[in-house]
Amino acid sequence: MDFVPSFALILPELVLSFAGLMLLLLAAWGGDGAGRKIAIAAATALFVAGILIVPGLHAGTDGPATLAFGGLIKVDSFALFAKALIYLAAIGALIVAPAFFASPSAGTERGMRAEYPVLILFSSVGMGLMVSANDFMTLYLGLELTSLTSYVLAAILRRDTRSGEAGLKYFVLGALASGILLYGMSLLYGFTGGTGFAAVRAGLTGEMGTGALFGVIFVLSGLAFKISAVPFHMWTPDVYEGAPTPVTAFFSTAPKVAAVGLTARVAFEVFGAQIAAWQQIVMFMALASIIFGALGAIGQENLKRLLAYSSINNIGFILLGLAVAKVEGAAAMLVYLFIYVAMSLGSFVALLMLRGEDGTLYETFADIRGLSVTRPGIAWALLLFMFSLAGIPPLLGFYSKFVVFQATIEAGLVAFGAIAIAASVIGAFYYIKFVKVMFFDEPAGVVTGKSGAGHWALLGLTALIVSPLGYLLTPSLTDLAGKAAASLFLAA
Question: What pLDDT shows up at residue 60?
Fold first, then answer.
């Protein structure tokens, strides 16, 4: 077998793996003192990996030429679209990290952690394998590489009680979800006789037995945990609140893209012949996530915890596109995913800029009272992100919900879409609460610290994307999402 074409297809993963190994050695020799340099090098490696996927992303690569290593990996338009979002989100998580680790909020472990960018790189490799998986063995390898690095990232502040608790909860529940997923994979292997996606799909064609149906349910349940969809969401608020804020920003973006991409690939390419078997399950998870995410956030005072429920709520809208089970729904899901990454990353960057004169970070509603007086730039940016998350026009968040609802209604799921639209109104309450507290309450006067140029650049870029000017991106975004979605249905 000629492995040269296969290595060419996974060149971004090779670049990130090599960079991760080299930077791991540098971290061992240089310690945390080399943390900033390692972070810069890691961001550079992610940028180079992103450049490598640009030609294929615009050309729309599909067909047999996208298969690597005997069909274990598929680097098609869908995988490239997801990787682009993953690398961008990972770069954002690296940009905002040094200021956090230098702040008093890092406790006694102040200073940029040298292993943080290395873990981000290896996690990105795992996520790249997840969205490119064409076999359940590759799927599990990528998922576990991502999960193991995520457990360490959540607990990276070893002497911080909240960080340690977040890491432990994530590990225990993640291990449970991985076990459920692995059991489902074993059932599918037993009833279809293969682990490759094409072989499993062929085995599921026609009338499906009870054992195979349980395999489908277990696999979807394990993947639902990774995307924090109801009823497998229980870890999300605690981990988001307890993990260091840069890690939370990373969790809310890149792994979400990878998990949603993997779920979509499995649903369409593996279970595509049995849509009726999983469509109702996805419909339930979508509606339950929208409603629970909206209701659960209402009484929250911690901003990170509130954004965790917002993440659950937004996953519900993304799953609407998956439930449509057509190219149009998948394309709408990818458009929503891009806009969600910009909104979520921008929101967490704004939270990282809520600092006092001594660098202490603040993260409750009581801390941002009257923020428009003390830090108007951050307040107006948060207003943009919150209104966009609520889907209020003319911000780009409205467009993301519009394309998903349009695909849902055009597919004939009118009642389903109507319930989702009605439930989305609930979420507007806590998004508007941000505005009320920041612009109409008496100033708390604690958020007075300055932020670095990196934070302002990232905040400005994401705010620009979600603003009405972001609609200029929609033609290209729709084109790329359409190509990526179409590649998922070639196996049909």
Answer: 64
